[in-house]
Amino acid sequence: MTTTSVKGFAGVDVPNDDVITNCMHCGLCLPTCPTYVLTGLERSSPRGRIRLIKSVASGDLPMSELFVEEMNFCLDCQACETACPAGVRYGSLVEAARAQAFAQERESRATRLLKRFFLGTVFSSHRRLKGLATLLKVYQRSGMAWFLRRTGILAAISPKLARLDPLTPQISDSFSSDVLPEVLSPYGERRYRVGFLTGCIMDVAFGNVNMDTIEVLRRHGCEVIVPQSQSCCGSLAAHYGDMTSARRMAAGAVDLFKRDGLDWIVMNSAGCGAFFKEYGHLFADDPERASAAELVAARTKDLTEFLASTGFRPRHARPSGNKRPPRVTYHDACHLAHTQKVVQEPRRLVQSVPGYEYVELPEASWCCGSAGIYNIVEHEAAMQILERKVDNIASIAPDVLVTGNPGCMVQIRHGLERRGLNVRLLHTATFLREACDP
Amino acid sequence: MFTPSALKKLQTILGPADVLTSQEDRISYSYDGTPMLSRLPEAVLRPRTADQIAAIVQLANEEEFAIVPRGSGSGLSGGSVPVENCVVMLTNHWTRILEIDERNLTAWVEPGVITAQFHSAVEGRGLFYPPDPGSAAVCTLGGNVAENAGGLRGLKYGVTKNYVLGLEVVLPTGEIMTVGGKSVKDVAGYNLRDVLVGSEGTLGIFTKILLRLIPKPESSSTMLVMYDRLTDAAETVSSIIAARISPAALEFLDNTTIRCVEEFAHLGLPTNIEALLLIEVDGRGSVVEEDASMIEKICRDHGAREVRRARDDGEAARLRSARKIAFSALARVKPTTILEDVTVPRSEVALMLDRIQEISRKYGLMWGNFGHAGDGNLHPTCLTDERDHAEVHKAEKAFDEVFSAAVKLGGTITGEHGTGLAKRAFLDRLTDPPALQMMRSLKDVMDPRRVLNPGKIFELKPRCEGPMPRRREQIEKFLAQGAFT
Questions:
Q1: CATH number of A176-309, picked from 1.10.3470, 3.30.1760, 3.30.70, 3.40.50
Q2: Which chain B residues are Cβ-neighbours of A60 within 8 angstroms?
Q3: Does A267 score more than 90 pLDDT?
Q4: Residue A133: helix, strand or coil by DSSP?
């Protein structure tokens, strides 16, 4: 890690000076940045933020409140990295800047409280997350949620809470980590042995997607290893600059997944997959874990990346009663398309399922506004960005929308409901599992 | 000077939300796309009406501060980099296409419209606006007109100035003036419109632009031609032009540039070739096919290793956009890319490329070369690191020689990026002294208090008080010859 000219920054996780200088401020990132398009302000653009980071590094700007606000206003969708011909790793800069702001406690009180609640309480231990999720389940299933929403009591208690209520994920009946054994054998001959991360949100709110993923993997000849007592991979904490918690959680994941005999570690959450792939970098200065972390990172693949590279074929077409085949489209999760550069694989898989008409979603790789806990911390901006996504979906009126990240699913489901659009929203794993069904 | 009272008046004119004064905002508008130039403005303004702009310009005259207009800040000559004691004026509230007149093939636009968005809007109606700068995805039409931007289609279709029919402009004195109109022919009085096109924000701020459109070409064909020798590529360019063919684009990339572009765009370009030509012909179907075949033959006659035609529009578009990002892609090699745009008569392209190679060898610097070969417009790009001051200094000396070489070949120091701050020191090397004097006089007449983008194009000399200076040296020449005795 280069740590030259870091006047305003300190400690580890300092924005890298070479990456800062690599930005030759041509501006080609501007039209791809959702927050720049929203505000029209240069400081809300990747180019502007890099210049602000550079100014803090050189001591020309203190780490001001507005600076921190701007770093947090970034979705970290990294669409600018895809667009950048010079290959500037913008995400690494903004994440390091957030880590600095977090470590130096430069954020506003409200932001700190929110972050402390989500990162320090909800996601810090998986046992606690499950406990909270169970409470949330009771709220959602008991009719209390329905009652509070319907009567407007929720809105009366707190308009803000009422706005966020639809963004709470629908909690699964059972958590996948509670029902999954450590080893699941393949159907038929074993071709691969793969590790599987149950995740945090995936586990409590998308348990069925986890089951579908494992089902697809087993049909594809995989022995699936589910290390027990997993916790969060640390990506949410890292995303928001809490590098200490992130490293602690990531260390747990590295220890669980460094075991011998795994061909691959297969991910069904774009955010987690992207972060697993970063582990080598994250522990580069840690002699104890560096090599194990690198091994885990090198083994990690997104489900679609793994399936496409190993010749997955859906079994057969689902018989369709309709005259016209249902239309299916695909939304790119930012952390899959922009961070992991996995773009063609999921499309090829979705298109390989017979009986559907594939339609490309306009601006498919434009962020939906979910971005971790962005839709909670920056609610208003997130909703405006979501509107653009829903406009694009409405313009092609698909029957099925497939995507590969839990955050996007929660966000887009909310957008579709608000607009009253009747679109089946499926995780890629579920779509492929259905295509395998007898 | 820019005073708190001036700031207060600006806030009254615009409302506080459209006057940005935070340190963060000032930093964010302290630069444009030009390497190594930056300065903090005093404030950043986002006006919404022509009347507001006029009032601000009048205020600048009264309170004596300068105004630097800025579109997307993608310029490459420092045209929108702040100067001393200035406010930056943004056009990003001006993004409407006001009218597309299909009967007259014209369009009224506001200056903040993004060029690529305008392209799709008119092409959706079967019309065509040819100027296509490399930064089309981000740059604005206002910036294009101010810089008289060129781009990839110059050879056949010309540059921005060939498509500007009329302007509404706020003059440096604060008056609002309209020039030009929808008439194709108009010779009434001086052609003030063309004085404003390419004036780099020094003579007026555009508030409305009337552009000329043409019918969209029926079809097009794009090909990539690969060479083992740079000279073969350069000679191909001359031969194509000598054969009386006008391709819509005739672009050249050298090996360094090809490798960077390939690393980003993954087009499957061979990275062991010395040069590549990207050639596009367009027009009626049969003519396109004929031209393409002729070009292909010329390329092969000049020793092309391979000629590859784009399979479909999608591939052609990918090739064209890959060429457009060449400049930025070069930053993969070294972070600071000093890009120039020397232009020579088309017949001299091969010679100019030779000269550039000689100079780069002499200084031992890393270079990427690419450009609009068909226009004689080259982009020798020095690859360096702004933190290495000694190397940057060497690069400056090398460019000095490149400029001289271009001028010697009958060319110019800038074909399309503008003079701005980056090349103003070289303007007198090229410009006939009376012409330079006339440029200065024009600036003085139109902008007596030097409020609009002062110090761009040429350094402003201290103002003269009293009567006009006489050309003493000429008089003395006559005196010496005894003509008056």
A1: 3.40.50
A2: 27
A3: yes
A4: helix
Per-domain residue ranges of chain B: 4-90, 97-215, 219-408, 433-480
A109: burial class by Cβ within 10 Å (0-12, 13-18, 19+)? exposed
* Nearest CB to B264 within list A45, A48, A87: A87
* B464 DSSP 8-state letter: P
The mean pLDDT value for B116-131 works out to 97
pLDDT reading at A304 higher than 90: yes
| Class of the CATH-defined domain B4-90 | alpha beta
CA B372 distance to own-chain centroid: 13
Long-range contacts of range A151-159, CB-CB < 8 Å, 24 or more positions apart? none
Residues A41 and B28: their CA atoms lie apart, in Å, by: 9
Query: From 1.10.10.10, 3.40.640.10, 3.40.630.30, 3.30.465.10, which CATH number describes the B97-215 domain?
Result: 3.30.465.10
Distance, in Å, from the CA atom of A257 to the CA atom of A265, rounded to the nearest integer, reads: 8
Contacts with B82 (C-beta within 8 Å, 6 or more apart), sequence order: B29, B30, B38, B39, B40, B41, B68, B88
pLDDT tens-digit series, residues A100-143: 998 888 877 777 777 777 766 677 777 777 777 787 777 777 77
Please state, in angstroms and rounded to a whole number, the distance separating the CA atoms of residues B399 and B387.
18
A70 with B24: Cβ contact below 8 A = yes
CATH topology of domain B219-408: Vanillyl-alcohol Oxidase; Chain A, domain 3 (3.40.462)
Adjacency order of strands within the sheet including B43-45: B19-20, B43-45, B86-90, B66-70
ipTM for this prediction: 0.93
Instruction: Transcribe B64-93 into DSSP letters.
Output: T-EEEEESSS--SSSTTS--TTEEEEE-TT
E strands, A297-351, where?
300-302, 327-330
Distances (CA, A) of B83 to B187, B410, B454: 37, 32, 7
pLDDT at B150: 94
With H, G, I as helix, E, B as strand and everything else as coil, classify residue B424: helix
Q: Provide the shortest C-alpha distance from residue A42 to chain B (in Å).
A: 6
Residues of B with Cβ-Cβ distance to A42 under 8 angstroms: 25, 28-29, 73
- Hey, what are B60's tokens? 């600048």
Q: Judging by DSSP bridges, how do beta strands B164-170 and B176-180 pair with one another?
A: antiparallel
How far are the Cα atoms of A125, A258, B205 from residue A252, in angstroms, in the given order?
A: 11, 10, 60
Check if A176-309 and A327-436 are the same fold: yes
In terms of CATH architecture, what is A327-436?
3-Layer(aba) Sandwich (3.40)
CATH 3.30.420.140 matches A17-107:
no
Domain ranges for chain A: 17-107, 110-167, 176-309, 327-436
Residue B33 has pLDDT above 90, yes or no: yes
pLDDT in tens, B54-80: 999 999 999 999 999 999 999 999 999
A42 and B28 within 8 Å at the Cβ level: the answer is yes
Structure confidence by residue, pLDDT tens digits, B304-334: 999 999 999 899 998 988 899 999 999 999 9
Nearest to B118 by CA among B217, B207, B212: B212
Residue of B nearest to A5 (CA): B387
Cα angle, residue B408 at apex, residues B404 and B413 outer, rounded to 5°: 50
pLDDT tier at B144, thresholds 50, 70, 90: very high
Contact A248, A195 (CB under 8 A): no
Q: Is this model's pTM higher than 0.90 or not? A: yes
Question: Which chain A residues are within 8 Å of B23, Cβ to Cβ?
Answer: 61, 64
What is the spatial distance between Cα B25 and Cα B323, in angstroms, rounded to a whole number? 32
Q: Which residue of A27, A55, A66 is in closest CB contact with B138? A: A27
DSSP state of B185: -
